[in-house]
């Protein structure tokens, strides 16, 4: 063996060099002796440990590990190393030691050798503190980002942030800029800002951006968009994560020349915003750019911001065939179309709506839609179109769009109306005879004639 020819003194030196502290225990686990050449460690070890059981001088969470070390002590092998937290001289301060045990064959004593883990423990504590600080900083950054986004969206300014490279891709864009340019967010993030400009403006805008980056001062440029809309671009450069960016503020080139259609205080906007019918403006592909209060309520969303950039198709019922055909017919030309569909919400409710749509080409292609909710329970003329229930095929189209009781109610009203018309035709418009055929009183017949607006159609012939 490697150490068989070494003296006891030499073995003692090797043991001291391989450990910071050693304990000698009897079979019951009581401390018989403590040896350490580490003066700093010796000062922390309590002086009254001799004669005490090792289990009694360690932290509660280390007692099971101490018992395992005592049980695993063997004359053949050294035990597994385990971290033990012992009581120190200072109150509330534990002394971490990595320990292993072995039993001597000569006197049956248990020898415990230990390595001081105080420096390692400090490093671990510093790591935990650093992680905690990083988490707090991360939370702080998230809060700042939320504040930035709130400020970014509040107000009337049209703000765009672009990355300063050859293409000037759009990094962020607020709602006002999307409305002004009539673009949806998920269609422009990552897209080159220059793609919003006509080809003859590329060189001028690119030179303007280069000058702004080189001079580091705010600059202003008059330009036009691909829709021939004159705008004024105010640009400011800034650096984030060592990368250059541009903050752009877009304004109409001649704000006094605006017709006021899109001004927040204009009568047109107020009329649309407060209209009883739902109203949206969307791209030719169906991405929502603008929505009024009625449509927000109809779609059961909290705000207009929740709708902007989302496809209108996701708010419609399962049968979108007629709507898709209408959208297809609107593409590429200015025309007006209409269809009947349904609006669903996250509560499982479905409302039948009549949709009127018109497409416009200038100043940028878009589609305006009006959603008129059709409710059979209303009596002010807002009734389901009777042509929808004149065949079983058309009736089946209503399934899933309106509740069954509304379909049955409409069908019952239609049958009743047709029977009254047939009775009046058979009696040559004699209401007394018609009421007898129908088994109704004359007064009840009059009420139903008024209900179905048949008073003027059939003259009273008694």
Q: Low-confidence spans: pLDDT under 50, at least 5 residues? A: 256-262, 376-393
| Structure class | alpha+beta
Instruction: List the strand order in the largest sheet.
Output: 2-1-5-4-3
**Strand portion, in percent?**
15-25%
Helix share, percent:
25-40%
Evaluate the radius of gyration. Answer: 42 Å
CATH architecture of the largest domain: 2-Layer Sandwich
Distance between the termini: 133 Å
Topology-level CATH name of the largest domain: Beta-Lactamase
Task: Output the number of helix runs.
Answer: 13
- Got a strand count? 15
Average pLDDT taken over every residue: 79
**Looking at this structure, what is the CATH superfamily of the largest domain?**
PAS domain
Summarize the biggest pleated sheet: 5 strands, antiparallel
* CATH level 1 name of the largest domain: Alpha Beta
Whole-number tally of structural domains: 4
**Broad shape:** elongated
What is the H-and-E element order?
Answer: HEEHHEEEHEEHHEEEHEEHHEEEHHHH
Task: Give a brief description.
Helices cover 34% and strands 23% of the residues.
Explain what you see:
By secondary structure, this protein is of the alpha+beta class. The chain has four domains: 8-116, PAS domain (Beta-Lactamase), CATH 3.30.450.20; 155-257, PAS domain (Beta-Lactamase, 2-Layer Sandwich), CATH 3.30.450; 267-373, PAS domain (Beta-Lactamase, 2-Layer Sandwich), CATH 3.30.450.20; 402-451, Arc Repressor Mutant, subunit A, CATH 1.10.10. It has 13 helices and 15 strands. The protein has helices at 8-18, 39-44, 63-72, 118-153, 175-181, 202-215, 267-273, 293-299, 321-330, 392-398, 404-426, 431-438, 442-451; strands at residues 21-25, 31-35, 82-87, 94-103, 110-116, 158-163, 170-173, 219-224, 230-240, 243-252, 278-282, 288-291, 336-344, 350-360, 366-373. Strands 2-1-5-4-3 form a five-stranded antiparallel sheet, sandwiched between helices. It has a five-stranded antiparallel sheet with strand order 7-6-10-9-8. Strand 14 (350-360) and strand 15 form a beta hairpin. Helix 11 (404-426) crosses helix 12 and helix 12 (431-438) crosses helix 13 (442-451). The protein starts with 7 loop residues before the first helix and ends in an 11-residue tail after the last helix. Residues 256-262 and 376-393 have low confidence and may be disordered.
